[in-house]
């Protein structure tokens, strides 16, 4: 982290600095919201969570060398510097916004969408890292706490920052984009995730495109031209990618089994041979988005293509695991109706017997039963075996049996019940997709199946 003074931090969040005379110029070497990670020179920002209030740990951070703390409650007995604010959460965002402003020559890419944000972020980083020093969001730190953490990791050595931005309510994207201030705004798709709060796909479009209010003056929105909602965007400068629509497109797609996909990449009417070592057309879309961005940044095409070839997704994001017994497709990090259908479509294109372990999809509100039944109907067309886990997953099982009585569809209330019986339904050489919302903890199923094959 690039250092800042106590006065800079206080001014950034409009806080009142209480500190011994002459200490306003003390340097902050890093920022943390976790008292356990505090080291010498850190600024501590206590956050109120569902289970803990960070204010309870203020005294301990100075024992570890903290130079200052933010607080919502002035403590006259505290002998160390403190910045008093109305809301530490808002102050965290304000300081991150200020810190972002210190890097005038940094290109920032904001990535959002209903599904595929993380894999798209990883693909963009894989491509751009062939030519630039790139900082990226680690894991899934894409909310109002995670985005500041990423911003504070920016250093002078970075040329590009790729920052994932996830939302499920109106107004959240505005708060995120105000910190990120993207030069390139990427939206992967407008699907059906978070309908419980965003009401409709038009609502999701409205919420996602809040990002454009903070797009830099000469910035570009890189959008999926195959998406019927995104293709209508004309409020900012746009550049579209897609399997069919956009200045960056794909032709001659050939699925090479579980090893990956080759295709002809067409960008601004130039043609290139490309290969992505991952399954599914959605991964081609990710590659197209990354290549489009590489062209906007004047990166050599061969380096960008090499970045696509070298792509490696993070754990839980459609990772192929060859066990010698099953071939597991570990896609259990999260799920919504669109991403589940996309994953099932890929599984359906493979040879051999195909199975899936599908769990509840969360945050669908009143549409939940309908959406789960749609997945059941779709799954019945491409699978031999369907194992469903969770409260709403029973609708997947019921609809699959209705649409295709020959599919071997079963239901379990929870992971423990499933693990006790799952081997009765899977056969050697099955390709098994594992997918559900993050809170369903399907990583337990992945680990169980890996272990029994060792």
Strand order of the largest sheet: 9-10-8-11-12-13
- Count of strand segments: 22
* Percent in helix: 25-40%
Specify Rg, calculated over alpha carbons: 24 Å
Shape, please? globular
Based on secondary structure, the structural category is alpha/beta
Termini, distance in Å? Answer: 43 Å
Tally of alpha and pi helices: 15
Question: What is the average per-residue confidence, as pLDDT, rounded to a whole number?
Answer: 94
Instruction: Tell me the major beta sheet.
Output: 6 strands, parallel
Question: Could you describe the 3D structure shown?
Answer:
The structure is a single chain. Helix 4 (117-128) packs across helix 9 (281-296). The longest helix is centred in the middle third of the chain and has 16 residues, at 281-296. Strands 9-10-8-11-12-13 form a six-stranded parallel β-sheet. It contains 15 helices and 22 strands. The protein is 32% helix and 22% strand. The chain is α/β, with parallel strands linked by helices. The mean pLDDT is 94. It is globular.
Describe the secondary structure blueprint for this structure.
Elements: E1 4-5, H1 6-12, E2 16-18, E3 27-28, E4 30-32, E5 42-44, H2 58-63, E6 68-71, E7 82-84, H3 88-101, E8 107-112, H4 117-128, E9 134-136, H5 146-151, E10 160-164, H6 172-180, E11 184-187, H7 195-198, H8 201-208, E12 220-224, E13 238-241, E14 248-255, E15 261-267, E16 270-276, H9 281-296, H10 301-309, E17 319-322, E18 327-330, H11 337-348, E19 354-359, H12 368-382, E20 385-389, H13 393-403, E21 408-412, H14 415-421, E22 431-435, H15 443-452
């Amino acid at each position: 982290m690039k250092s800042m003074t106590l006065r800079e931090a206080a001014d950034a969040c409009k806080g009142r600095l209480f500190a011994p005379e002459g200490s306003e110029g003390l340097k902050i070497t890093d920022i943390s919201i976790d008292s356990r990670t505090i080291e010498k020179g850190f600024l501590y920002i206590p956050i109120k969570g569902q289970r803990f209030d960070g204010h309870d740990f203020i005294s301990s951070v100075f024992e570890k060398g903290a130079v200052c703390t933010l607080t919502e409650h002035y403590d006259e007995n505290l002998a160390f510097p403190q910045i008093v604010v109305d809301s530490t959460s808002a102050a965290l965002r304000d300081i991150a916004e200020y810190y972002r402003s210190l890097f005038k020559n940094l290109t920032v890419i904001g990535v959002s969408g209903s599904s595929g944000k993380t894999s798209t972020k990883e693909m963009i980083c894989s491509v751009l890292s062939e030519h630039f020093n790139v900082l990226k969001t680690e894991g899934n730190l894409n909310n109002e706490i995670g985005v500041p953490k990423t911003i504070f990791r920016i250093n002078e050595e970075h040329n590009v920052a790729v920052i994932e931005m996830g939302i499920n309510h109106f107004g959240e994207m505005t708060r995120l984009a105000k910190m990120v201030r993207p030069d390139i705004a990427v939206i992967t798709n407008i699907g059906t995730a978070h309908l419980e709060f965003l009401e409709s796909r038009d609502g999701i479009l409205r919420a996602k495109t809040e990002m454009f209010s903070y797009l830099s003056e000469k910035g570009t929105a890189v959008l999926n031209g195959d998406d019927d909602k995104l293709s209508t965007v004309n409020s900012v400068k746009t550049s579209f990618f897609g399997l069919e629509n956009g200045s960056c497109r794909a032709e001659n797609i050939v699925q090479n089994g579980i090893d990956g996909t080759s295709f002809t990449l067409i960008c601004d009417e130039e043609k290139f041979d490309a290969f992505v070592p991952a399954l599914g057309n959605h991964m081609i879309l990710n590659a197209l988005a990354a290549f489009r961005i590489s062209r906007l940044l004047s990166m050599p095409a061969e380096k960008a293509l090499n970045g696509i070839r070298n792509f490696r997704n993070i754990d839980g994001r459609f990772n192929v695991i060859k066990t010698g017994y099953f071939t597991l497709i570990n896609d259990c990090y999260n799920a919504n109706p669109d991403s589940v259908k996309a994953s099932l479509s890929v599984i359906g294109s493979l040879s051999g017997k195909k199975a899936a372990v599908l769990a509840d999809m969360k945050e669908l509100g009143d549409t939940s039963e309908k959406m789960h039944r749609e997945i059941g109907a779709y799954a019945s067309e491409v699978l031999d075996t369907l194992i469903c886990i969770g409260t709403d997953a029973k609708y997947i099982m019921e609809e699959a049996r209705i649409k295709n009585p020959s599919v071997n569809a079963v239901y379990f209330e929870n992971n423990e019940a499933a693990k006790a019986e799952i081997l009765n339904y899977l056969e050697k050489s099955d390709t098994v997709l594992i997918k559900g919302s993050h809170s369903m903890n399907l990583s337990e199923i992945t680990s169980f199946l890996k272990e029994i094959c060792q």
